[in-house]
């Protein structure tokens, strides 16, 4: 199925060099995303980033004579499919459930077992997308906005020769970020840049720094903020001010918080923050029941024999038998792994499979309609389900939720890639195969990166690695397994208030007309601000302010934001990983 290297550029797609290039780029971006998600709580999308990197990389290789011809448009589509599947190995709950399990139980399977676990769950998400592709893309013509943007970017680069400028911006920004990280983090330098710009005043009897009020000197945060929606950014700013300039001093005065430091404060604020995030996600999920119903109907339609016969009319479609074979192999493997690695009873593990299939189908539909993957809601929904059927089992609560979140994320990712491929004339069958290559390399890259950054649970929930999603998942799981009696009364009240705010915001977002929704605070922004340091939030808001300012004042430069911001994120995160690796080997860095 690998295309011949001598095929015309316009028709070759799944070439060896495209697959290997996608695997290399995907592995690098996966490692970068491990750092980013533990720092900010978000896995940054890499679909557009990978296409820009691939264009610039192969352009350089062709210029020096190492390749006979430049990368073709369809080959770049393959790079994007492989790289996105690899980099998203950090999403869907993977980098939330596993660290949360480490915090709560101290348990972590060995590296090989973890790689197999990640690969099986992601591959299950890929096969779930196969039977619903025709309905969602060919019949319903769902927009999948990111897929449309990827197709537009690919055409612009390959047909209008704009890719060189975009890739140059990305690599230059990455170099700047790496150099910045050297002068900030290399301990042996005589002069270093500060990691935190503290506000020069005291607040409520303590230095502003103690309340985390300052500016984190991190280009990862600035770059991530530049790609953030303005509504999310101002919501985070509001959440940080409420949490650290009002709520935290009140908690200290009442004795609910014993010390003025990040860990003490977040040990309380994680409860209202988690309640806000979970309630908003679950309620939004419930309000989208029509999308869910249409998605389930599409799955049943796709499973009809005549539907597969229709899809088989062209050799370019992925056949339905791939779904049947994949499900027959991967489902029992996933159940066996849940039992072997996490001591989840076989019957409880088996329940996760149909739940994951349903969630994967719904995630594909919601992603196609809104461009927002609902995986942040899929995990909590599963946690609530297992809290009811297996209430005292922490591990089942966490790891089953990572199954549904992972399946949903990878199903939505493949459907997004298939939308882009449809618009540029790519073969869906080859795109599915490319996705499996990405799953394979991503599962191998994510584990050592995680083990390097998180040698033990003590590094999580610190100002350096706030791991906000981890703290939320751990809190929800603890509450569901141990009961509310173990939570202080004040935290329970705060959690109830947070839940009501989350439901209210979700309802307003659903009910208000589009022109008014921009004035409703983002539940995700508010909730996340309550579980990360204010200095982290403020740095992301600076990036968002810069990005919004450029889009409004200089619209012609807006296209440069994605490569520059992506370069800042990749440069700092990758060099931070390199420094961590050097210290493991005893280098004086």
Explain what you see.
The protein is mainly α. It is 73% helix and 2% strand. It contains 23 helices and four strands. It has helices at residues 16-40, 47-63, 73-87, 94-105, 111-139, 145-160, 163-185, 219-226, 230-254, 262-287, 289-302, 305-311, 320-342, 346-370, 375-389, 394-424, 428-453, 468-482, 489-511, 514-517, 523-529, 534-553, 561-584, and strands at residues 196-198, 202-203, 206-207, 214-216. Strands 1-4 form a two-stranded antiparallel sheet. A hairpin with a 2-residue loop joins strand 2 (202-203) and strand 3 (206-207). Helix 11 (289-302) packs across helix 14. The chain is globular. The two termini are 46 Å apart.
Radius of gyration: 23 Å
Tell me the strand percentage band. under 5%
Largest sheet: 2 strands, antiparallel
- Taking pLDDT < 50 over at least 5 consecutive residues as the criterion, the unreliable ranges are 308-313
- Mean pLDDT comes to 84
Number of helices: 23
Instruction: Kindly state the number of beta strands.
Output: 4
The SSE string, one letter per element, is HHHHHHHEEEEHHHHHHHHHHHHHHHH
Q: Pairing-aware structural class of the strands and helices?
A: mainly alpha
Strand order of the largest sheet: 1-4
- Give the helix level as a range of percent: over 70%
- The gross shape turns out to be globular
Separation, N- and C-terminal Cα atoms:
46 Å
